Amino acid sequence: MKFIAYCSFLVIFTICEARYVPGEVPDFYAMVEPHMKAQIPKYIKSIAKDFKYAADAFATIEKNVTIAKTLMSNELKDVTKNMIKETLDLIQATIGTKITDEKALKEIEEAFSLMSQEYLVQYETLSGSIKGLKDHLLAKESLVDEIIKKKIPELIDDFVKKMKPEESKIASQSYVNDLKGPGREKVVAEVRKLFESEASEIDIVEKAVMEENYDKSLTMGLQFRILLNEVAKTYIKDRKQKNTVVGQLEAKADVVLMPLLEKGVNDLTVTLDSAKVVINNTVKFVVDDIDYELKRLTNSLSVILMSTFD
């Protein structure tokens, strides 16, 4: 790497030597412009890789949400199927008669199925929220590119205007130090500012998604109990027997349903945590890359410019 950097310096220095003739007033901008213009496309290409990481990572997250929904759907089907069977078995054992009303049985199955589908809606909400976060983040790529294309030339142009051939090497060195320090940091700060809203975006999404999960879980738990009560009440006329059956069914529902609701919370939490990691990593990669490349650029330019005083 050191050898490559040294070779790069020789190329830059050779260009400068070709442009600068001792005794003539140096054209500072002409000396740095070719190098600056050659670097800007490289920065944009580097930033594109950072956003590709984000796009690929979000694609994986979205795929995982779909898988999680499918698994939850299958588990809910199993739970409701078993609950329907246990409900009917317990009712039939209590009344001593087999329930043969096909229409009634179909209605019970549809009620359980509808309840499950309403709960699964939150996975669709989660998918939409993740897509929104992804689109919000990826839209920043073009804005970062604009800063690179506009602000770096402005920074260099402003700096070159300060350089005066008649000034001393010490005075010019102070301009170089400003370019390498505050000047560079100003561009980096502007890039960083683009991502200020990312944290609030994920917080808003997290709050909305978890609130919906709470509502869906609460509603499903309540609907489960109401449905069990309604089914039992339809076939068991004795109030005491009905309450006993419903109590047993509710206890069973708590055992099989609560773990699923907790799994739903885990699905949402893992997904949102993954999205946070992707967002934070992308912001860090972009800002660090701009900072690193600007350090290289300003260091190279300082070598070019200060060589005129040797």
Descriptors:
310 residues, mainly alpha, 7 helices, rod-shaped, disordered N terminus
Q: Can you tell me about this structure?
A:
With about 300 residues, the protein is an all-alpha fold. It contains seven helices and no strands. The longest helix is centred in the first third of the chain and has 68 residues, at about 30-95. The two termini are about 25 Å apart. About 25% of the residues are buried. The model is unreliable at about 1-25 (pLDDT under 50).
The gist of it:
The chain has seven helices and no strands.
- Biggest sheet record: none
Q: Work out the helicity level.
A: over 70%
Structure classification: mainly alpha
Instruction: Give the overall form.
Output: rod-shaped
Radius of gyration: 33 Å
- List how many beta strands DSSP finds: 0
| Whole-number mean pLDDT | 84
Order of helices and strands: HHHHHHH
How widely separated are the two ends?
A: 27 Å
Return residue spans where pLDDT drops below 50 for at least 5 consecutive residues: 1-23
SS summary, helix count: 7
Q: What proportion strand?
A: under 5%
Itemize the secondary structure elements and their pairings:
Layout: H1 2-19, H2 28-95, H3 102-138, H4 140-162, H5 169-194, H6 196-235, H7 239-306
Protein name: Neuropeptide
Keywords: Signal
Organism: Nezara viridula
